[in-house]
């Protein structure tokens, strides 16, 4: 029987020989995954990262990334999701039920605040915002406590050890947003060297969009756990929410991982130089960076190792400068892009009016703050650029 060209091309008998070994992981893309025969189709296929069933549930490429991220975080299990935000929403959606309360630090990533304030109440879930520098009060219906180290924009470093220990003692599930630490500054599951018996968070998530990608080009997230029952619960929600990934994006993150420790360290070094220098400038009222003594939560950062820090610092200008002047300063920067996200190659600067985005009192006077995210440019050029832009404040 002769077949038409389409059938011939689709059912082509040639298979590439086995034995291809190379440094990068091949990109495996599929919706359909083929079974050998109906007996193979009917076999049970637990979602354990060892079998294939359908492209949405994992391919060799995505399983490989998940396994490497679990190792990075010192976890047993890792779920991949299509954005850092999806990694934020998954634990809350999977764990919280009507009548439960979730606690969220006041400096939490903005989208987690919106989820907590405007979505979760629809499902009968209540919330409280807590001061990240203190251990929050736990109540009988407190089901989940979020932590973020350091927190977004103002970068106060929370009392990780105190809060995680209090939650463990009460059996309250904890979720740590580890995007800032990237699995390198400390890890949420394991002990920090010589300081304490262990952080012991239950869930550690990351926006892979930031350091693991490193290219300002991919959106992705990870949700890691050590506990099988908790992982199964997250996995169940993951399955029903239909979180799929483009395997070319997965490949991009796999490509970013080997250079991540080098990038983290280089960006940390330049960020600290610029943050310390800015702290001594006459225009500046306050600089937030967890490694700077006097920055809120500095002692909590020391308590979890106190070695590495991410590429972020925030500057509060003296109240004599208006929001318009601070905007003009940001506009005068030539090497800093104006835009969200961070940990990519290009440095970024964003002015924030913090007056509407917090429930508790702000850790500084005044309204306007500029958050800097340091990229991979030459340090001297970045400093010279900030120096020339400060002239517009004069
Ligand atoms: C960027 C970020 C997220 C969200 O990541 P996206 O991939 O942009 O959705 C979550 N948490 C923190 C702390 C972040 O900085």
TrEMBL record:
Enzyme class: lyase
TM region(s), chain numbering: none
Catalytic activity: L,L-cystathionine + H2O = L-homocysteine + pyruvate + NH4(+)
One Gene Ontology term of the molecular function aspect: pyridoxal phosphate binding
Residues modified as N6-(pyridoxal phosphate)lysine: 210
Domain of life: Bacteria
Names of the cofactor(s): pyridoxal 5'-phosphate
EC number(s) stated in the UniProt entry for this protein: 4.4.1.8
Pfam families: Cys_Met_Meta_PP (PF01053)
Signal peptide from the UniProt entry: none
Keywords for the protein's UniProt record, in alphabetical order: Lyase, Pyridoxal phosphate
GO BP of this protein: L-cysteine catabolic process to pyruvate; transsulfuration
Protein family (similarity comment): Belongs to the trans-sulfuration enzymes family.
Name of the protein described by the UniProt record: Cystathionine beta-lyase
């Amino acid at each position: 029987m002769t077949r038409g060209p389409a059938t011939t091309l689709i059912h082509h008998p040639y298979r590439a020989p086995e034995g291809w070994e190379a440094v990068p992981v091949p990109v495996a893309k599929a919706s359909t995954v083929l079974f050998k025969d109906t007996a193979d189709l009917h076999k049970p296929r637990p979602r354990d990262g060892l079998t294939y069933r359908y492209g949405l549930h994992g391919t060799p490429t995505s399983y490989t990334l998940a396994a490497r991220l679990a190792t990075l975080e010192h976890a047993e299990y890792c779920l991949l999701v299509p954005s850092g935000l999806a990694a934020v929403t998954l634990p809350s959606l999977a764990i919280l039920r009507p009548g439960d309360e979730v606690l969220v630090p006041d400096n939490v990533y903005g989208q987690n605040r919106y989820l907590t304030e405007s979505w979760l109440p629809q499902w009968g879930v209540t919330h409280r915002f807590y001061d990240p520098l203190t251990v929050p009060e736990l109540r009988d219906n407190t089901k989940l406590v979020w932590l973020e180290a350091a927190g977004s924009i103002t970068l106060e470093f929370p009392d990780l050890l105190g809060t995680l220990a209090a939650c463990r003692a009460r059996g309250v599930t904890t979720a740590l947003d580890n995007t800032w630490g990237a699995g390198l500054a400390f890890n949420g599951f394991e002990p920090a060297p010589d300081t304490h018996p262990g952080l012991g968070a239950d869930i550690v998530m990351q926006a892979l969009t930031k350091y693991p990608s490193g290219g300002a080009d991919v959106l992705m997230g990870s949700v890691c756990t050590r506990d099988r029952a908790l992982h199964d619960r997250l996995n169940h929600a993951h399955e029903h929410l239909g979180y799929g990934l483009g395997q070319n994006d997965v490949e991009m993150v796999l490509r970013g991982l080997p250079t991540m420790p080098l990038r983290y360290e280089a960006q940390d070094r330049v960020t600290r130089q610029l943050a310390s220098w800015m702290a001594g400038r006459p225009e500046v009222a306050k600089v937030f960076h967890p490694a700077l003594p006097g920055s809120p939560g500095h002692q909590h950062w020391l308590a979890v190792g106190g070695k590495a820090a991410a590429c972020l610092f925030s500057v509060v200008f003296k109240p004599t400068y208006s929001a318009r002047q601070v905007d003009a300063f940001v506009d005068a920067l030539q090497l800093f892009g104006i835009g969200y996200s961070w940990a990519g190659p290009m440095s970024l600067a964003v002015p924030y009016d913090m007056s509407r985005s917090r429930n508790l009192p702000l850790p500084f006077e005044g309204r306007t703050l500029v958050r800097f995210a340091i990229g991979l440019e030459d340090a001297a050029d970045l400093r010279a650029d900030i120096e020339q832009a400060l002239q517009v404040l004069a």
